[in-house]
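Task: complex structure prediction.
Instruction: return structure tokens for all chains below.
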Amino acid sequence: MKIFKTAFCALIAYASLLASNLSMAADAAVSAVAPASAVAPVVAAVAAAPAEVPLNWHAIIMFVLFVAITLVITYWAATHTKTASDFYAAGRGITGLQNGMAIAGDYMSAASFLGIAALVYFNGFYGLLFSVGWLVGWPIILFLIAERLRNLGKFTYADVVSFRLKQGPVRTMAAISSLIVVIWYLIGQAVGAGQLLHTLVPQISYRESIVIVGALIIIYVTFGGMKATTWVQIIKAGLLLGGATMMAIGVMAHEDFSFAKLFTDAVAAHPKHIAIMQSVVPIGAKANPIESISLGLTLMFGTAGLPHILMRFFTVTDAKAARKSVLYGTCFIGFFYVLTFIIGFGAIVLVANNPAYVADISKSVLNLKGGGSMPAVYLSHALGGDFFLGFIAAVAFATILAVVSGLTLAGASALSHDIYANVIMKGTATEKQEVWMSKMMVIGLGILAVILGIAFEKQNVAYIVALTFSIAACTNFPILVLSIFWRGLTTRGAVLGGYTGIFGSIGLLIIGPTVWTKVLAMGPAIFPYDFPTFVVLPAVLIVAYIASVTDSSESGNKERAAYDAQLIRAETGLGAEIGVSH
Amino acid sequence: MSLLIASKIQSNPKYLQLVGRRDTLSWTLSAIVCVMYFGFILLIAFAPGVLTQPIAADSVIPVGMLAGVGVIVVSCILTGVYVYKANTVFDPIVNEIVREASK
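Output:
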């Protein structure tokens, strides 16, 4: 708790500074003529910044401070990490509130902070769809998954799916889908980290930025395991919530604490004026009902199938703590998304039309120096000068580190716990061997993230959110829910359904507009939708159903019969992995 | 978990009642969230005019903005409802079932 106190003292200090700087906040010019063609990508896509920028000392000092604190925590965590349960699940000693913060820290990525603010900045109301979609998965996780997952599983969600099914094929399928989600998510985060750090501190190159991220992640996760990861996420969540709250208060103070004034000023300042309140698609895009529905499905159910999020439920003491942690997490995340919305509109008022931030004001009053994900970053400068900009930059970077830590650990656990210990060694590996293997996998994934992050520097990575959330929504989520609630699910149904989800999502994404037309430049897309979930999710359910009910094998019957024992454990927690309470 | 305990639990009417009641609550709340959210999404898809009209003649704020924030707030409240129910109703029943089974 000392860490919390320190962090809060720091936040209060920043808050007072922010107040003194508010008077410097730039007023927005009202006359806007030039049309803006840009549609903000959800994943940070930042161009190189001019080189003559002075060294951003505030950001560097705050970032170094964050790294120093987290390394001390990692040292502490390393001395308390001995067993596999310590390494993967923080010894199951995390409380509900702590896990709620860590969930928020794991989930609120730089893409949702900078990305939603940027979506709102460019498109107004449309950005709210992402806030809502990314939140509504959480109640579903609570009502259907969290407690049962905690009662049935050990370290990975594949533990739950394979609880009464055949270990080999089911774990392999689940691990493949987890790894695809984790690796692509990692690429998105690594590219975002490299671009962000390089833009904010141009003296550090793109490659150096990614190497720094990779090295820190490997240190955190190999030495400190889930304990270090959890505390990095908790501190980051505190910093991000604190920073976003101060920005939102700054915006509202500038707008006399009146939402009516904020939105009226934003409509006046934005080159599209009232259209930003009336467009339910990206401004300039054609209305597409099917795409809107598919996007809605993907955001909601994708959240409930992210392996690094599901893994967090194994860190708490029992089902009750798992339940509480979702309540806290949902409230933190919901609060945060409302803040990002205010921040986005605040950026329209304070950042657009400001020659200090806009790249070429004669061409567009919206397009910013440093690219499409910068509105929130510049807003911090408009509100609190270099000091607050440095703070928000450090927070954004901390955000990436926390998310990448969680992802790396989830990927490593799929490889070591599912593939190595249960598929290859068939449960004969010792705990020591499994943890050792896991650490090697962390190092491997860390290096892979660095290599891929560098390889994808100039690539269009806008499809990554669609890819990862689609696979999570079409594979992990339906198979997990079926295995928990449907007695009839057999190995055949789970495996065929799972692969339908994996290959269906990837296949349709490749022939969809983003990859086929924009990345591969192959002309008009064969499948005309960016988000394939509305086709693939029903297909997965149908395949899993038919493959299960037509499965009359003896093993299939045994698997159905084993459902009773699974249900007792899921409902009562009898036989669940025991947690420790501190 | 021994077979004896398992069979004791399965024949305990409280257990069947627990599973039924918790499933009902879980799926009802999930259905509420889905109806609310997909209602919002379907309006966006097929009747955006409903959501984009301003809340008042002299305001720029569209109805959809309040609806969207409303979905977020109601989601948070419903998670609270579930946790409250689980803490006060289901946990005591679970404890009873486990105690009776291990007797």
